[in-house]
Batch of 2 targets.
Target 1
Amino acid sequence: MTRRSIEIGMAVSAATFLISVPWLIPALTDNFWVSVITEILIWSLFAASANLLFGYVGLLSFGQALYFGFGMYGVALGIDHLGLSFWPAFGLGIVSAIAMALVSGVFAVRLSWHYFAIITVVFSLIFYFLAVSMKPLTGGDDGINFSLPPVFRFGGSIWSLTDPTFQYFFVLAVVSLCFFLMYRVINSPLGKGFLAIRDNDLRASLIGLNVYVLRLIAFVMAGFLAGVSGALFAFFGRYASASYMFYQVSGEAVVWTIVGGAGTMFGPLVGTTLFIVIREIVSSHWEHHSLIVGLLAILAVIFAPKGIVGLWNGWMTRLGERDAASAPPRLTLQAEP
Amino acid sequence: MLSLRDVHVHIGKLHILQGVNLEVRPGESAALLGRNGVGKTTTLRAIMGLVSKSSGAIRFDEFDLSNYPAHKIPGKGIGYVPQGRGIFPNLSVLENLNIGVTGKRDTEREDYVFTCFPRLKERLKQAGNTLSGGEQQMLAIARCLMMRPKLIILDEPTEGIMPRLVSQIRREIYRIGQSGVSILLVEQNVETALKLCPNVFLMEKGAIVYSGAAHDLKGQPEIVRRYLGLSQ
């Protein structure tokens, strides 16, 4: 089996599985798992925002929960306080997260390494405590609940996220679109600039790349991804809570990214899937399931520093080299002298 | 073209550059020589805006480089190949070449750098960190050429390179100089520097102590011995 055939097989299997989830999962097990997979998709987008910064630009952020929270509250306050319909509320959540990322990014991306990590935590904590203290507006830790407005109305028919199948496909479409956008950016000259900064920011500036501006663009883009995931999670749970703005939530995204594979497109999806499935299976039997998370993170850092996807890519590269070595030599025609 | 006038640089309490005066004219190749630790690399870093000068003036064409942050200096026409090559290890050869090019891909310029360094064309999709040391150095110089610089600053370009590739790199540096691009070369190998560059600056304790033609320096063994620790 060649590398190419394995990769095509994996992609087709994953796509078939994701499209058939609403019918396949109830046939095999409980409906509850459709909801878990929806949640995995949302959180993997959140982890992708941490991955964009850490894996592609080299900035370790422990503050992505702030933009997740702004996405959540944009939706919740938009619907509950401002009486907005679905799409304006969704837009408000995303724009709020982008605006917050821009404001905090202007200060944060001047720093790097641990200073950057610390300032992201500080921003996250400031707004977490503000959200907790402004209980009449935000509901604090208890959060605010809202009723879902319909997504579309066509004549007499109403499409709403209250339908679990529609909700799943809506989340799948939005998350896929965001991953596609991220893929396009990473493979564009802008993305190569991100990678150059991650490899060596000094060298990058010596060839004319404005490190500050590129980092700010990446930071705002990561804020966008976190904001979209926060907005989706608000629709998914029909509520928003300040507890999701705590830096521990950001830390989880970093762990999922590292275990899945930082700097790879699907590492966050793999890491998030692994940890949420473990949480769902183990937590009903053992309350200390976080110990497994910690143990896996340690093992991943020691034995798979590039994460599960990095390990997989290594195998695929070796397989590709083996394919190339075993390929028959190319025949060339030589002219008669 | 490039002129440094009485440039002083302090790093912490250390007075590293103590009044450097240096000039590279258009189309001229100049070597900056001196023992280890005399301030050669700091001089280059000051030109590129990587260290702040305490006083003095650094001008390139009509620009006062003190007014520009490091990332804007390459846009003024100065290419810098730092010591230790400075390629991006996780980008491919082609990506490394184009990373500093703004706007659309400059295939005409790519063809030019491939005529200088044909080995790179054979390795377009290879990641930078899979190249040999000599190939990485070629890539660093080629990347610099992609930005069509008026002046190239090279910091020890043949250090730690396989001898077989050193001669090719030297030959290309000479050809770059012949094509009208100015060169400021820092090189430990004095013989190489004197062959490639008609003009020489000698540094000692953070200042230029000798400037003149390379062939004149060859006739002054006392100066070579005193400032470079070499006997001819």
Target 2
Amino acid sequence: MSAADVPEVSIPDAGDPVAPESGAVPVLDVFDLTVGFGSAAKRAVRRSIPLQGIHLQVGAGERMALVGESGSGKSLTAAAVLGLLPDGAEVIRGSIRLDGEELIGAPERRLRDLRGGRMAIMFQNPRASLNPVLTVGGQIAEVIRVHGDAGRRESWTQAVDLLSEMGIPDAARRAKDYVHQYSGGMAQRAALAMALSCRPDLLIADEPTTGLDATLQQQVLELVVEQVTSRDASLLLITHDIAVARSHCERTTVMYAGRVMESGPTASVTGSPKNPYTSALLKAFGTVDQRRMYAIGGVVPTLIGELGECAFADRCPLAAPECREGVPDLRSVGDRRVACVKA
Amino acid sequence: MSVVSPRASGSTAPPARRRSIAGVRPVHLLVAVATMVVLVVALVWDGEWRVLRVVLTVLAIIVAPAVWDPQRRVIRPATGVMVALILLALIGPLFTRDPLMLNVGESLATPGSDIWFGTDQHGRDIFARVIHGARLDLGVGFSAAALAVIVGMPLGALAVLRGGLFDSVLLRISESFQAFPTLLLALGIVAAVGPSIPILIFIIAIVNVPVYLRLTRSAVAPIVNADFVLAARCAGQRELTILLRHILPNVRQVVLAQFSVNVAWAIQILAALSFVGLGVPVPTPEWGAMVRGGYEQMVYGRWWVALFPGLAILFAVLTLNQLSDRVRHTT
């Protein structure tokens, strides 16, 4: 990614310190993505801007965690990537590239081919994301048929193979079952099988373990990582659990109020955060021996209109007058990028 | 990172991707359209009861999930009776006497071991007429209800998907249909084009379209934004596929339950129309018309003329209602 690609907006540093292999095209490249709700007529005054200038890159075979509290815009970013923004939302500016191909403004036909084909998603609630009146195997086989020219029998065999790869015992028989006959963990395995059925380059996992108990969470996450790695795919793992990011992803992006606060290798972002928000988040995550749980003071700012200052300024312990002079750029600092004037 | 880029390994990816096309195969649509065309053409140009046989067979397939319980691997009991009734209507007439044959010498014979249900004032065998009437009444009932489903169900789903003006216009039209008295509508149409079986099916279907439209609409509305619909969209499925494969099958149960009640209702309407003289043309054996022909005889103590066709209506309607109950509770 270089600044020359998108001349309208200038990015402070053209050289990208976080690209895994310099020169390689990232699998997913989100640049200055800004999404607004409400009509353009109300722009700037009453319009809600849930995503403001999101920068996000996921390299080939890389596992990236997208961390942030509820409402920070993690899932909306995923929806924008898939081209399935909710009604009323629209991309105001920015670009989203999948393997170098621009997705914003791409025809619906093309997006449909990419969805499920080159990028796939698995959701929070696996039971709800599988159709109750179709067999699990049938649904997976259907996706395989949509994106290829496998026949009925062939796609069914592939679906059964996928299910057994995902660790579903007696897959040939269980493929004929309906979702209500599956346990939560199995349903999530089936959802993973469906997402990976067409060998996507990018898997987006939107809080895939929220509905599962602790032991299953670990198992499912390990399975996701293992399967994604064995398929040379990239993973964008959306989570609000920093521990999950720490143990499963090599890179982490921290979001707050619709902006990227910090992005870089997981070890350094969570080990020595440079953005005060990241430190506060880590502190709030807490430890067993803490006597009182730490909570960040204040509230998340409203997202009406484009905020002309650092979104965290009101709650930041290090806030200074210069924090309010403009939106802090996402600058390269050492091995990562930080949106903080103090970093 | 030592991982190979997926782009680099792109050549090993299945070539299928490039040619990924529709979810619904054109074949499916073709079959559906062809079925409807055959149905309509056959209904309009009906010589011998062939059409009704086709319609009944097609419907038997549609109703299959209500008949067969895959979990317990048994035929559902209420349905067994229905199937028996349908079979009776289909092949029963082959084994009875001619329902149209006049025999004035034996008019108004009492039911006995020889003539089971007795004869009417023209000496026609009532048993034969009841069995032949089953074919007509069930046939008209099923095809009218089926026509209503075929039109009403997609419209209802479309109303939800399109929403806005389309939805409200469709609803107002369906309301105006519902507000219109059925018999009055039938009277008008029959007076204009004359009574015939296709016209009767058409009338009964038209009156029922709004029922399915509203039913489907209210059943589709809560699931149109369900996670699995979103998941299907995320998997790159086309909107039409999502509608046909993911949304409508979830609505099937309510529609099926309504369907069998509706067939019963259609039989009643047909009987009512025949009773007031707007139904099938005269010598045709039809339950409602037979009751009409027999009720004058009641006064003179000849109860059998109206009783047996009346019982047939009761039995068919009860069975269908039972079936509907079954479907609602077990599917």
